[in-house]
Amino acid sequence: MPEGSVCALVGPNGAGKSTLLKLLTGLSSKSSGESTVLGETPKQNEDFLENIGYLAQEIPLYKSLNSNDHIAMGKHLNKRWDDAFIRKRLTDLSIPLGRPVGKLSGGQRAQVALALALAKKPKLLLLDEPVAALDPLARHDFLSSLSQAVADGGLSVIMSSHLLADLERISDHVIVLAAGRTQLCDNIEDVLKSHRLLVGPRKDSITDETGYSVIHETHTAKQSTLLVRLTSKTKLPTHWQQQDPNIEEIILAYMGQAKQGEVE
Questions:
Q1: Cβ-contact 202, 220 below 8 angstroms
Q2: Using CA atoms, how far apart are residues 184 and 247, in angstroms rounded to an integer?
Q3: What is the DSSP string of 65-128?
Q4: How far is the C-alpha of 43 from the C-alpha of 48, rounded, in Å?
Q5: Domain 6-188, second-level architecture
Q6: 224/202 Cα distance (integer angstroms)
Q7: What is the rounded distance in angstroms from the CA atom of residue 115 to the CA atom of residue 185?
Q8: Residue by residue, what is the 3-state secondary structure of 115-170?
Q9: Could you give the CA distance from residue 54 to residue 49 in angstroms, rounded to a whole number?
Q10: Distance set, CA 61 to CA 13, 107, 116 (Å)
Q11: Across all residues in the chain, what is the average pLDDT?
């Protein structure tokens, strides 16, 4: 993934998103293959982990401890800890530092966890479904905080989520993981430019000789709708109606293609 980008990691349940993130942090050991994070093989040692921020889906905080307690632990455990940053951030969010985190709202707990991850000043932040259990307003506030942290510079983010609309709002890179494989990995702007929806008569079908790949297709008795990926040599036929798909349509098409491949 490009440095300084926000990368959306998407895929169906069981695709391996959480496993991949744990492999990248060194929390799990690979059975085969290679992975490189910030030029190093992931491992559980201090030099590697000081550059990695990781927030698991369950937002692991000590419920009986308050934010001040968590901040004190973070300061003790991390070399580049920014104490002033996290205290100002939580204060600006009106989160009481002295209240046990178990008594905070879900959105407030997520903000505390994100602030703790950012306060260690990582180069790479890995987020596993961080907004899955939040209401729309809490999700908006969380993603706004994340966007501001990236805009401040020096941070790259990989975030997994099923909420495609939220990811589209803040991401500039996308990875689609399905059927145990990477189905798509590219800059979102380039993905949008290289895909088209074609609508035409049912009798018209695209062959391999037309210069583009069919990612997904649906048919009625009179009409076919195809999502295709273009190449530099593609010339779109004039007898097909062309539409620009959004990123959600493209991602769902790749996930559907992978599901069909499994069945076959």
A1: yes
A2: 12
A3: SBHHHHHHHHHHH-TT--HHHHHHHHHHTT--TTSBGGGS-HHHHHHHHHHHHHHT--SEEEEE
A4: 7
A5: 3-Layer(aba) Sandwich (3.40)
A6: 5
A7: 28
A8: HHHHHCCCCEEEEECCCCCCCHHHHHHHHHHHHHHHHCCCCEEEEECCCHHHHHHH
A9: 9
A10: 24, 13, 10
A11: 87
- Give the number of other Cβ atoms within 10 Å of residue 250's Cβ: 24
With residues binned 3-state (H G I as helix, E B as strand, rest as coil), the percentages for the chain, rounded to 5, are 40, 25, 40
User: Are the CB atoms for 40 and 27 separated by under 8 Å?
Assistant: no
Question: Is residue 252 helix, strand or coil?
Answer: helix
Residue 212: strand, helix, or coil: coil
The CA angle 163-164-167, to the nearest 5 degrees, is 95
The structure's pTM equals: 0.86
Nearest-angstrom CA–CA distance, 240 and 47 = 56
pLDDT tens-digit series, residues 169-198: 889 999 999 877 888 999 999 999 999 998
